[in-house]
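Record type: monomer structure entry
Structure origin: computed from sequence
Chain ID: A
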Amino acid sequence: MKSGSILDEILRVKRIEVAEKQASMSLAEIRARAADQPRARGFQDALEATIHAGKPAIIAEIKKASPSRGVIRADLDVGRTAAAYAAGGAAALSVLTDTRFFQGRDAYVNDARNAARLPALRKEFIIDPWQVYESRALQADCLLLIVAALSQSELEDLHGCAVEAGLDVLVEVHDEAELDRALGLQAAMIGINNRNLHGFETHLDVTRRLAPSALGKRLVVAESGIKSADDIRALREIDVHAFLVGESLMASDDPRRALERMVSA
């Protein structure tokens, strides 16, 4: 990783947060809590069913703020937003839980799932097995693993823990080297993030460049920088049919209507 980047700072803070959580609850205890949860809703299954029906599979994101834009929706109501997304045709939800940089909360996962019968991705910077089991204890159905944040051994270990915990996994990449690592992992879903996590600018050309190497091998999800139905249509033309959309929906006066326009693409 580039030294001194935003990602570096997020991971530095995350290590401190995880250590504090581990001090109050052991790995064995959080694993037991995870095991007590109902079976996860099928996140990948929901995306694939939507695609099979001929529609774009949109993972609609609940995100109050971001390092690049600051506060996006000051009046965020997680339950109401999740219900609006479900009514607007979302295939699944993505829920930000990082507090320091995104103003999320762990409780948002449950709030979203209680308001909509959609599977939910816990959008978090996962760096330790403790967080994997915590995600299932929070009733997340899927978690995100960011290749840029992890060594290959860490990536393999966390992926294995997630599978053991009954979670689907979206493995996020930003360039060719990271994509090679993800393909070697045998991850079922690969997210191509159009946002540079070091500088946070977005370019849809990242998906256009990387997707051909993964299509037909994995379920490809285009992430970030998707602002309109035109963007959805353009990416569907290159056979990408799953999308994670956040800021453009969160910043809309009517997130449900904004989502409906994308679903119709």
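Annotation 1: The chain has a mean pLDDT of 95.
Annotation 2: The beta strands are 57-62, 65-66, 70-71, 92-96, 120-123, 142-146, 168-173, 189-193, 219-223, 242-245.
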